[in-house]
Every structure is written in structure tokens, then in C-alpha cells.
Amino acid sequence: MTNREKAEKLLKQMTLTEKIGQLVLCAGCNVDDKGVPDSFDLVRLLREGKCGSVIVQPQDMSEAVNFMQKIAVEESRLHIPLFINCDMIHGFETVFPIPLASACSFNTELVKKCAEMSAKEAYACGVRYTNAPMVDVSRDPRWGRIAESQGEDPYLAGEMAKAYVSGYQNRDNYVMSTLKHYAGYGASEGGRDYDIVEVNENTMLNTYLIPFREGVSAGADSVMTGFNALENVPISGNKRYLKDILRDKFGFNGIVISDASSIGEMLSYGVCKDIAECNEKAIEAGVDIDLGGVAYPNGLEKSVLDGKVKESLIDQAVLRVLEKKYELGLFEDPYSKKDKSCVFSANHLELAEELAIESAVLLRNDGNLPIKQDKNISIIGKFALSKDFLGCWQNSSKTEDLNTLEKAFKTAGYSVVGVSSSYDLKETEKAIKNADMVIFTCGEFSEENGEAHSKHNIHLKQEEVDCFNYIKGLAKKTVSLVFAGRPLVVSDIDSGALVYCWDLGHKTADAIVKLISGERNFSGKLAVTIPADEGQLPVYYLKKKLGRPYQPENPEWRFQCRYDDGYTEPEYVFGYGLSYSRFKYKNLKAEKLVFNKGENLDLSIEIENDSDIDGTEIVQLYINDVVSEIIRPIKELKDFKKVKIKAHDTVTVHFSLSEERFKYYHIDGSFSADVGEFIVYVGSDSSVKDCVKIKLVD
Asked: How confident is the model over 672-694, as a mean pLDDT?
């Protein structure tokens, strides 16, 4: 008997109440000192078959998980096991770099491996369903949830989506992944969480939906609806986006889950008169699971009995849930595994360190890096003695299992002659008195970013800037480390070396010290633009062509897209990042300048490491559709390769682009490539000018 047949057989035995129960996800995060959920009401719901899933914290809650599963399996009428769900955004007990940082690695294989390790830990603790990855294209650093995203580029976000999905849904420790937040949530106006989104469908298809399409193609089991509306219809009740596009156009056949309370929030949007109507719109649009369980239990059954909702819609959703529970083997073994030796293991920490090393981005270096171990250093700022490197959206119980920067530098053999964790000028002067080099730390703590942490001021704090300028005034050499979950305006500090560290997880300090010492080389590139000032926001590289584009060579001409009173160009562009190595690009060639539809376009470029240091370069390929049906971007990322190049060696990097890479969604919704001329750029970041012109013909 197939899993589908098993699900259909079980469905026939279910009452309407039990069916709706399978569509309800309850909160089970709060447990007592014995690991038992402290909500008696939850226990009752489990016994009565009124709750099909429970969300827990991403940490070892095995006792609570087994307690809840035991009630569902042994004490409910039909013995249906639970989905145990968690928000495993960038790790379980072992915390990896925040997703925005991980995207800066451009290393999809390593990201996949880290997701697989997270799934392994979660699986051992009974979790089979995660609300990750978050793949919202995010271009406004005022939005706190940019930390959870893969950055501003849809192609990179799509590649990362596939990596996370493949990692979580691995063969040995399969945990259902969830693409969120479908869709356009990252385009909230003004960078304010929960604000309105005004994006037309064509832009949605060509930008914000690309990572979801790619995640679906990788086999994602679940998609979560966003809090936002599109075309003035809240997503949790939006048939156009959930059925016509997600299911019909993209071919998604998995589970759609609401974000917390988003079904009921249609009341606040003013498109429903009561919770019953919210439920009706959500189930008709195709929302299978109500996360939080505050909507479907309150009136959905009555709507069916009153004839306002067809029971067949309920059955369809329940079958998706039951079939997946059978596929996961939950009916055979719903409990947490006893062997949890993988949780927070040395192997997982090694992976966390490797990803941290590849995610940090060197933005500036006037020769202050690397720092030799014979130098006396001082560490200044709020991260000098801090362990707040895990970032937002993590609940690891191992919050103290990190090195401080001071300890990591001392362990590496440095003489730390002074430390000040404040920006008090007298304390700073005392701490740096005998230093050859000052490590200056700044940025924002984990609690300052993530959900519900939108900002209109993304500059460094004035006390940080004042302290840095004081150190510089004393003629001290500096290396500045910025720890943050979003791009901050860093133009206020003119440091000899500047490293964007992000929040890199459990091995942050160790990774940063290895990079600063030169034991490891920088290779990270920005997955998001860093603005020169807040007045530019939103700012990103993938701008569309304009009638009067900005002309950098003639910035003072008024009648172009520019600002009168500030910077037009960003501080650091997408794809930018330095290394201790020096790379030179030369001899970009296309195998042929005219290629036919259905053929591949093959290109090559030589890259020389003109330095004494082995390095890794992220080679980026962008295209420009010269004449198109609709306005297209000036330049858009279509491929990248991460290549190791030994000192004084030259390698040839090859690209092979299928016709698919040249396609886009047209006005009529079709997905095809224009016949005609394209410009292909290959270089080290999105400002690349080295290009070749090619032509696509029928």
C-alpha cells in the first residue's frame, strides 16, 4: 500500500473535528523543569486529536517531544503522530553564521553540508519539520529580517535555497524544509516589518519569486505564507499567488503553512468581517496548516457544516499532511532518537568555523592585515569581551560555549596588552597605550536585529565613532571589526583595515582570529550592498535600465537619476570582497559569438594570483539583455564559481550557460529568452566592466 493509499484509508476514519485538528500547529515551547509542556490545554488538544503539529525551540527538547508524541500516539483515538516543528534558521544546538553571512560565502556545498548537520541534530531530538530557509529577496537594511535572508540577489538566493532544501531534506536525517516567507515580504515599505508591499506581478515573477521557484525545483516540502499582501490581497488568502503561481506555474505539491497568526490578521487588513471568513479564504486559497492554531480551530468546522467551505478542501489539506507523516516514517517511529552524540559535536563545530571563515568579508586593507603574532594588540569596544556572536533567531542552550575575542587572540599566541569593553575615552587611552595595533569592535548586538527590529538609523552609534576617531587621533594603527545582522553605514570610520564579521555563530571569535592572523585567507563577498548613507535606501546593484541613468563620470549634471545633497553610489557594491591575494582577470572569451536557442554558451576567463599568498576567488558572471520586451536590469548575476588559486598561478575558469539563464517572465506570464544581443560580464564583483557581446538567434 502506498503512502497516499494509507493516508486515504486513515482519512475515511476521521471525524471533521479530527481532520481540522491535523491542520492545527500548536505552540509547545514552554515546558516545566521535567520537560513536560506546561499547558494542560495542549495536553487535552493532543488527546482529543485537535492538534496535528507542535512547534518547539531549536534545542534539545527530547523529553517534551516524546511526552507529546506519546499522548498523540497512545492516547488519541486514531493514534496519529505529530509533526514536531521548529524555527531552525541557522542551526540547532550548533549555531552557524546567520543566513545573510552564509550567503557571503557563495559556497552552496558548504551551506548544504551545514544544513545537513543542523538536520542531523534536530532529527536526533525528534524534530522533523523546520521553518527554514528564509529566501525573501531583501534590499533594505532597515528591515531587521534581512539577517535571515540570502541577500539582495534572486539568483544567489535561489542557489542558496536549493542548498538548504537539499541539506535539510537529506536521506539519512530527513527534516522537512519550509521556503519562507511567500512572497515579497522582503519588500516591505520603508524597511518596516509587517508593512505594506507594493510590487507588481511581473516584478514578483522576475525577482522575488525566483528563490521560491528554485526551492520548489529542489523538492521543498513546505512553503510558508508571509504577513504581507500582494495586489492588495493578504497572502494567506491569496489564490492567485498560492494556487495559480505556486502550485500551477511552479508545480509545488507540498504543504502550505501560514506564518504565525497571519490567517486571523486578515481581519486587521479589513478584507474579512470575522475569523470564520478568514478561515474560509485561507483554506480556499490553499493554506494547509494554521501556525499558532488561533484561526482554524475557531469556526472552520462550522463553516463546513454551514456549507460555506467544501469538506473536500479540508480532505485535500489533511491528505497532504498525513501522506507526509507516512513518508517520514512517523507512524513507525515518532520518538526522539536516543543517540544524540552528534548534537554540538566537534565535527559540527569544525563546520561552523569553516563557514564562518568563508562568510566574513574583508572590505578594506591598507596593509594593517594580517597581524603577526609578535605584535602587541589591544581590543576595544563592546565585543571585546562579549559572547554575543550567535545572532538573531537561535535558541541554542550552548550560549556560553563560545570564545571571546580576547581569549581567542591569547590562545593564538598574541600579546593582548589592553582591553576595554566600553567606548570611554579614558579607559580606551589606557588600554591602547602599549599597543602596536588596535582591534576596534563595533556594530549591533543580536537583539537589535531580526523580526520586529526595524530601524531608521543604521549608522554606527556616535560613541563608537567618537572612540574610533580618538584612537586614530593618537596615531594608532587600527583593524575594525563590524558585528551585525544587517548592513550598517560604516563610512563614519576610516580604519586601516575593515572586516564585516556579521554574526558568525559559535566559532565567531576563533574564525576571525584565524583570518586576522593570516592563518586563513579571506574569500567572502557581499551578498548585499552596503550603503554610503541611509538616504540611498533601498540601494542594490540589480537596478533596471532608466531613461536618464546616473552617469558616474559626470556626477554633477542635474538631469539624471542622482541626489543633490549626498552620495548616489553605495559604499560597497554587491559581490565585493578583498583577499590577502591579488587577482587579475584577463582574456575573457566566448567560444562563439552567435549561439542558437537550445544550445549552451561556453565562455572562459583567465585569473592570475599575482601575490605570494594562496587564495580563493569568487568569479561572478552577469548578463545584460540589450533589447527586451520589458525593462530589464542593467546587469544581473547568472552564475558564479569559487576557485582556489595558488600564489603566482593562473587558472582558466569555464562557464557554460544554457538558454535558461537568458530567460525571463514576459508580460503574458510566459518564460522565454529574447532573440538578440546580450552582454556577458565576468569579474570580481557587480561593478565589473570586462565583457563580451554575444547574440542569441532562433
From this structure: 97
